[in-house]
Amino acid sequence: MIKRSMLMLLGAAVLFSCSDDGNIQEELIPQLSIEGTEGSINLQLPRTDDRPAKQANSVIIRNTGQAPLSITNLEWLAKPTRVDAIGASGSECTDDSQCGGGEACLAPTCVSLGFAQTPIEVEPGLRYDLEFLVTTGSGELDCPAAPEGTPEEFLNSFCGAFQISTNAINSGGLVENGSATIYLLRPSSSGQIEITPDFVEFQLVQPGVPQTRDVSVRNVGSETLTVTEIFIASMREFVSVGGETPPVEIEPGTSNTWTVTVSVPEGTDPSEYEGFTELTVNSTAVNNLSGGKIPVQISAGAASAPLISVDPTTLAFDQADRQTITISNDGDATLQVTSLTVTPASTRAFYKWEVDGTDVTNNFQTINVPKGETKDIVVVFERPAGNEDSAVATLQINHNDRIANSRTEVTLLGDAGDVPIARIYPTGFTFQAAQGEISTRTFVIRNVGTADLEITDEDLQFSVGDESGAEFQVSGHLGTIAPGGLRSGTVTFTGANATEDIGVVIFESNDPNTSIELGIKDVVAAAAPVSAVITPASLNDGKVGVVASFSANESTPAQAITNALWTLTSRPAGSNVFFSATGAEMQFVPDVAGEYTFSMLLSSELRESEATFTLNVVP
After folding, report:
1. If 0-12 CB within 10 Å is exposed, 13-18 middle and 19+ buried, where does residue 280 land?
2. Beta bridge pairs of residue 28
3. CB 231 within 8 A of CB 260
4. E-strand stretches of 312-418
5. 452, 447, 484, 442: which is closest to 577 by C-alpha?
6. Helix and strand numbers, DSSP H then E, in the chain
7. How far, CA to CA in Å, does 190 sit from each of 309, 489, 531?
8. Using an 8 Å Cβ cutoff, are 99 and 86 in contact?
9. In 229-287, which ranges are continuous DSSP H helix?
10. Whole-angstrom Cα distance, residue 22 to residue 2?
């Protein structure tokens, strides 16, 4: 006999239990998911000492279950001075003196400090955002001692921790028995780094004839940053870096230049020096915590480049638990596969990777694929005992083919068989809250599964503000999307007031595993306007099989350009092209004649701008 509360299927957020008469009953339960963080927040100091700074990172508490989630407690385990949670907005202000006690001025409104009063109810599919700021002051933060049990990787930079407690009972990832602990990390600097160019290419390299390229490291932040290391990862017998020896301090608004030199001894065969390496720049900048890596390509010929193809792009494991991906390099330079990642995080336990018979899941080394050659990666599927969660996932192959936007995705179906799988691009939009403001944004729903995807309806739900959703209209997205196909839709915002609204569009579909959600909000933002401008490399028509190049370099503000988000929104019949890429530049290769339309979304300090471009492609 199954005892009460003994069988729990967390993936479906359903609890099966026995009633007093022995009959099995089905109880819906909440399920806690933490998004927007891998367990820590990197703090940033204020730009000046006379106003608070809202932190770039927020913590998203989402209810992925089927019953209301109750956040029962939000508690500091160790609280740094000058750091606090952001509460509700209040009266208008220009500085802290116009706000009451326990408030700070995030112009144009005062915000209360501290966690909101609990319990906080979060309905199924919705989320609650925790946002933070550093209050007015000067100097470094006063960080408390790390409590017992703090993970070792956070100890050296620990600056606080808080706990989220809920009525959920699931475990996995950051969540344990429905609770989660998030750690705050001390900033060593709040400088921000910008490295140009983002790709270094040496063409027509000949033995005995050195070539040089300059790399500029600029501090686009408001505090001093320190470049702690700059080095070439490999091929050091041919490639070197010259310039000031780190550590090097770079003041706000200034830059420092290093020179990359390729020098090949006479008599060296091109097969020995052609290929790729990386220039690594490590610094204290808040946006450079994992290091900046710039690809460096060396070619004996002109304009050599790798060209990746991956087959297949969908793997099903309902018949066999081992499947092979073949990566081919059809270009003229060495292809480098630098890493493999799988999302969502809940599916990581199902998969591992093998290369040449060796398990490389936890120790992946860069794979070099010379021009004209192939490499196989074996994907192994294994469902852990008792785990009934969905194993549908996306495998991201990261590489150095810039035309493919440096990544290729493969859909992993697990043991689900033929199913539709929905992906949405982008995942959210921000509008300016103002009466009379009218803006339109474009999104795309893509079917990466193996069965038709049906989009049948949408539901707008708000956690803050106008629950009627009268200011937002969603259109153009309903219908059937064939496997591999895509369909675009629009969100139109018509501002009726200056009140902030935060919500989500939940699309109804026949995808059994994915909740299709698009975040929407309108905010009162005092930041400078943003202007997205798409600049084509050529004013002529595109050609099938020829690279088409575009940039965001004429957009403003300049510091936002590197985060430009490019999304293909429509393509001709018969085309298999798709991209969703981030960066100042975007390239793609049209595969059939016709019109290709794409958008570029530029975001800066809660302001957004979207530009669209249609490229006519001839045979």
Report:
1. middle
2. 14
3. no
4. 314-315, 322-329, 335-343, 351-355, 358-359, 367-369, 374-381, 393-399, 407-412
5. 484
6. 2, 53
7. 40, 38, 25
8. no
9. 270-273
10. 9
Confidence of residue 494 (pLDDT cuts 50, 70, 90): very high
11-38 burial: b if 16+ Cβ within 10 Å, else e: bbbbbebbeeeeeeeeeebbbbbbeebe
Rounded to whole angstroms, how far apart are CA atoms 602 and 613? 14
* Contact yes or no for 381/354 (Cβ under 8 A): no
* Distance in angstroms (rounded) separating the CA atoms of residues 65 and 233: 45
Strands 516-523 and 428-432: parallel
Q: What are the tokens at 308?
A: 């990746």
Q: Can you read off the two tokens belonging to residue 152? A: 């070792």
Dig out the tokens for 94 from the structure.
């220009």
Residue 341, CA atoms < 13 Å, CB-side half-sphere: 10
Looking at residue 453, the DSSP 8-state letter turns out to be E
Strands 548-551 and 535-536: antiparallel
Q: Could you give the CA distance from residue 65 to residue 42 in angstroms, rounded to a whole number?
A: 29
Q: Give dist(CA 489, CA 466) in Å, integer.
A: 22
Map tokens 């370099």 to a residue. 553
Whole-number Cα distances in Å, 102 to 45, 109, 141, 382, 580: 20, 14, 19, 52, 42
Burial code (b: 16+ CB inside 10 Å, e: under 16) for 339-371 equals: ebebeebbbeebbbbbbeeeebeeebebbbbeb
Convert the pLDDT of each residue in 342-390 to its tens digit. Answer: 887 778 889 999 999 998 887 788 888 888 899 999 999 999 888 888 8
In whole angstroms, what separates CA 590 from the centre of its chain? Answer: 25
**This prediction's pTM:** 0.59
Average pLDDT over residues 1-18: 37
Q: Take residue 407 and report the two structure tokens written for it.
A: 């990544």
245 burial class (0-12, 13-18, 19+ CB within 10 angstroms)? exposed
Cα 287 from Cα 193, distance rounded (Å): 7
Which tokens go with 515? 């909740």
What are the pLDDT digits (tens) for 152-189? 888 878 889 999 999 999 888 889 999 999 999 876 55
- Tell me how far apart the alpha carbons of residues 314 and 420 are, in angstroms, rounded to a whole number: 12
